């Protein structure tokens, strides 16, 4: 053993003191706020936003918020050629853009989005050709740029499918929360799709169906014929902006008539029973048929485009076709049909 005065004992003591000092510095650093470079970002602060701001508002303030974007005149009239119901099938061709917009580079998730371009969309287009059903495709412009073959596939059909605007990269507009940036992305989306399609889109669907406080004004200024993002009615209606008519037709959607709650998102594809989804979709159609109303389905090629799910969708289409007086149309055709009612 080394004696207390030996060199080995001195070395051991020095190392012990160094280790203790290092541990003390580490503990202090963990507790202290991070040092910031001059001009750097401020340290994060606790979010102390009021969780219930609405309870402090007066009635006029609540009205201003509630009716900034709201439902105006209901646009319900007889369908063409005596049809009992109008059916609009729509496909939001998001693929992986919603994931890319957040900077998430998890390639398992990205590949599931890419499935929409590789297999999902072609399978859907083939089914629509077999059943001779014109449909509407809302495409984030970045999705079209990443997989331009999708545009050619849709345009190549003899059914005159419609292509509409669905943001640039499926950006969530309330989260973006920037009027100038939202306008830039809308302009970029319109310009890109117009170039790729050869026709300026007339229909708009907000990414994730989410409006910011500027969205409605920008959609109106862009001259869109219709929007299809909101849920205030089962049937078409005119949109109001701050209580004033916009001249824009709303073709309302609904989450129970969307494949995402059943096959994507939080469900993560876990819905095991296609028959349950089919029953919801069919029941909604049956009531729309009895009411002489509008029936819109929202679907996503990377979700509905799998084999068994397209088979389910084709079965639903065949069921609807067996009913007399069903008008299958694009969203543009439906909006053009009801638009004259705005002036009446």
Task: Describe the protein's architecture and organization.
This protein is of the alpha/beta class. It has a single domain (59-343), classed as Glycoside hydrolase/deacetylase (TIM Barrel). 45% of the residues lie in helices and 14% in strands. It has helices at 7-31, 59-66, 97-101, 107-131, 141-146, 149-155, 173-176, 179-197, 215-222, 260-263, 274-291, 301-304, 307-321, 331-338, and strands spanning 69-74, 85-92, 136-139, 162-165, 203-204, 226-227, 237-241, 244-250, 294-299, 326-328. The strands form 2 sheets. The protein has a 5-stranded mixed β-sheet with strand order 1-7-8-6-5, with helices on both faces. Strands 2, 3, 4, 9 and 10 form a 5-stranded parallel β-sheet that branches. Strand 5, helix 9 (215-222) and strand 6 (226-227) form a beta-alpha-beta unit. The longest helix has 25 residues, at 7-31. The termini are far apart.
